[in-house]
Design brief:
This protein is an alpha/beta fold. The protein has three domains: 2-62; 83-96 and 108-305, Endonuclease Chain A (Endonuclease, Chain A, 2-Layer Sandwich), CATH 3.30.870; 319-476, Endonuclease Chain A (Endonuclease, Chain A, 2-Layer Sandwich). It has 17 helices and 18 strands. The chain has helices at residues 2-31, 38-50, 52-62, 83-89, 96-103, 121-134, 150-164, 187-191, 263-278, 293-296, 319-330, 346-357, 373-378, 380-388, 421-425, 437-452, 464-476; strands spanning 110-111, 113-117, 138-143, 168-174, 195-199, 219-222, 230-234, 256-260, 305-311, 334-338, 342-343, 361-367, 392-396, 404-407, 411-415, 419-420, 429-434, 454-456. The strands form three sheets. It has a nine-stranded mixed beta sheet with strand order 1-9-17-15-14-10-12-13-18, with helices on both faces.
């Protein structure tokens, strides 16, 4: 009798905890305006139903996807993003990528000079050192990883030298990225007068639900408010494997670029926003009160423009994802994609497959084996589906870490975002959108170079057990 009552008590308590957990999930998702990916939503609900005692703390720690925003507060807008420019830029003669980005709350295109794509890691490193050496007023660096190796140590030395010379130096390093591998001693930065911050350390206020939201943006902006302004940007972290490799290990294939001009100011504004957040300061969107839009607007002398695409928890929409899906459906003859991790959601995969089926040349470049085995397992179904639709998949022998998307001759996207759910729906990411033919052609040539070093993917027919395992990893790894 007593045992039966005790069992009924614990069963009732378990049911109560489960119901409260599900309600808390639903209320939190609604109040915080968490428009969650369907796979992630189903996974969270099932996790809560099956193991509420583990799932509820995990959800409170890792479950946020978008930062709460007071009603009526707009998405972060960057330099020149005032209503007057937006209205003009949405005209019928404006290219669709620009109109799409503007509709997602992004800034209008800004002019730039001297775009240089780095042919290899050595060229990227030379450009990085030149950008730092040429800075006279300020250096703002945001990155995910700084390695405890020759590159990381030299970077710290060069930044310290600039700080001692009177240049304002600020370094923003992701809190989780700093733990993923040994980082160099950063105390000399502060001793030299530089400023350093970790972006949301994992154990800092975990109940705010921000631990899972990582800053994956990678940029170095020099002299943002001056004529010598310059941006170094792309997919490279600041460690040896991304540039020159190490003993016995070749460098990874990656993509970065640098440019000069007003487009660098938009990246500086984004850094300022992230820096304020890392310091616990509520940043104010530059908007109409920001820099004069005339400073960033294209002129007759500067026909080349770039549009910064910020994506992440600080944006109302999933901007990079929305632009990719739109571009896939609008593509007419060419789609080139480079990514180390290919775990797209169903909508993006469908858009790419439909493009291939209607005759668009869809080429995907990725490593035969990446540095994340779970991502390699999770990608297998998507690769088979894309190949079956007529897409061509190219596998690099070594690690490939570049992020690039080229659509026809009208759009090239490059920056920090991978083609997986973590980058597209969770991380803070930065991509630059280029629309002028010379820039798009340059990125397409870079892709062709990587393609020439690769072998064609040959799909296989998995057995029942492996197909089930692939599906299980894909379902459980919705945040890969």
């Amino acid at each position: 009798m007593y045992a039966g009552l005790q069992f009924a008590y614990w069963l009732t308590l378990h049911g109560f905890v489960t119901v409260v957990s599900v309600l808390l999930y639903a209320i939190t998702a609604h109040v915080r305006q968490q428009r969650r990916h369907p796979t992630a939503a189903i996974a969270w609900v099932l996790f809560i139903l099956l193991m509420p005692y583990l799932a509820l703390p995990a959800f409170l720690t890792f479950g946020s996807r978008k930062l709460p925003r007071p009603r009526g507060r707009p998405t972060l807008l960057l330099s020149g993003a005032n209503s007057g420019v937006d209205a003009d830029a949405r005209g019928a003669g404006v290219p669709w990528p620009v109109r799409t980005a503007l509709s997602l709350g992004q800034a209008p295109p800004a002019s730039y000079d001297s775009l240089h794509l780095h042919a290899d890691g050595h060229a990227a490193l030379v450009a990085l050192w030149q950008t730092i050496a040429g800075a006279r007023h300020s250096i703002d660096l945001c990155t995910f990883i700084i390695g405890r190796d020759a590159i990381g140590l030299e970077l710290i030395e060069r930044l310290c030298a600039k700080a001692r010379a009177g240049v304002r130096v600020r370094v923003l390093l992701d809190g989780l990225g700093s733990l993923m591998r040994s980082r160099p001693n950063l105390r000399p930065l502060r001793a030299a007068g530089a400023q350093f911050r970790l972006f949301v350390p994992p154990l800092h206020s975990p109940l705010k639900g921000r631990t899972n939201l990582r800053n994956h943006r990678k940029m170095l902006v020099a002299d943002a408010a001056h004529e010598t302004r310059r941006l170094w940007c792309g997919g490279r972290n600041l460690a040896c494997e991304y540039f020159e490799g190490s003993a016995g290990e070749p460098p990874w294939l990656d993509l970065t670029f640098d440019l000069r001009g007003p487009a660098a100011e938009q990246a500086a504004d984004l850094f300022e926003h992230d820096w304020s957040f890392a310091n616990g300061i509520a940043s104010v969107a530059p908007g109409p009160a920001g820099r004069d839009s005339a400073a960033t607007a294209p002129s007759a002398e500067r026909a080349e423009t770039a549009q910064l695409i910020a994506s992440g928890p600080d944006q109302t929409d999933d901007t990079v994802y929305a632009l990719l899906v739109t571009a896939a459906y609008r593509a007419r003859w060419r789609i080139q994609l480079a990514t180390p991790y290919f775990v797209p959601d169903a909508a993006l995969l469908m858009a790419l497959c439909m493009a291939a089926r209607r005759g668009v040349e869809v080429d995907l470049l990725l490593p035969a084996r990446s540095n994340h085995p779970l991502s390699d397992m999770a990608r297998r179904r998507a690769l088979r589906a894309l190949a079956a639709a007529g897409g061509r998949i190219w596998l690099t022998l070594g690690m490939m870490h570049a992020k690039l998307a080229v659509f026809d001759d009208v759009l090239a996207l490059s920056g920090s975002a991978n083609l997986d759910s973590r980058s597209l729906f969770l991380n803070y990411e930065l991509m630059m959108a280029f629309g002028d033919p010379v820039a798009v052609t340059g990125f397409a040539h870079w892709f062709a170079g990587g393609q020439a070093l690769s072998s064609a993917y040959v799909p296989d027919r998995p057995g029942f057990a492996r197909d089930v395992a692939d599906g299980l990893v894909l379902w459980l790894g919705f945040q890969l």
